[in-house]
Amino acid sequence: MILDVDLTSETPIYQQIRDRVVEGIAAGELADGDPLPSTRQLAVDLGINFHTVNKAYGQLRREGLLLITRKSGAVVQRTPGAPDDWPARLKTLLAEAIAHGMSERDVLSQCETTLRTFDEVPA
Amino acid sequence: MILDVDLTSETPIYQQIRDRVVEGIAAGELADGDPLPSTRQLAVDLGINFHTVNKAYGQLRREGLLLITRKSGAVVQRTPGAPDDWPARLKTLLAEAIAHGMSERDVLSQCETTLRTFDEVPA
Questions:
Q1: What is the pTM of this model?
Q2: Is ipTM beyond 0.90?
Q3: A78, A87, A100, B118: which one has the fewest Cβ atoms less than 10 Å from its Cβ?
Q4: Which residues of A touch B112 (CB under 8 A)?
């Protein structure tokens, strides 16, 4: 997978890296045992500080999606079970669309469409 | 609506206030024109700094859900149309559940269940 970030976005870079990895796992582009680039390599590739990559990898480790060892570096390792606060965060995010006048039908349709993107055959 | 916050949560208080207001609007407990408590009153009620309430209200104003005037204080005023980055944030959040092994069917079912909670008749 290509880990692409938008340096002009308001979303912090570490958050973008974390999000892209999560989406890569969901789409099957990254499977258990797959290595991520080393923090220094990814920092060079993206033209960012390696502490930023470290922060992203550290969060993914705490989230139970990454194993980090001295020997193998960062390797995808998924812990089953969505985080405890996931339903609450889903509620807030769906509420945001409803609060802005989106219909429940459109919100649900957007959820379906989004989930289908994870089905695509990995490149 | 009762604006309740959890002072022990890792989620920042201003974020909790913002989230509860968004959910209150989605659930129809707060409609256009409804006033929110004054920042000082809410701060006293919750036992928090009024700057924290200001930060929450300011974010809701920037999100297009709140009008703040000197005369009327904070009043709900919904701007139609979900934020531009909402689909991307939805994708990341749904990906998180899939990455942790939740099935697409279960994720969609959770979305449906969540949306139904906004249908309940306001108390």
A1: 0.92
A2: yes
A3: A87
A4: 108
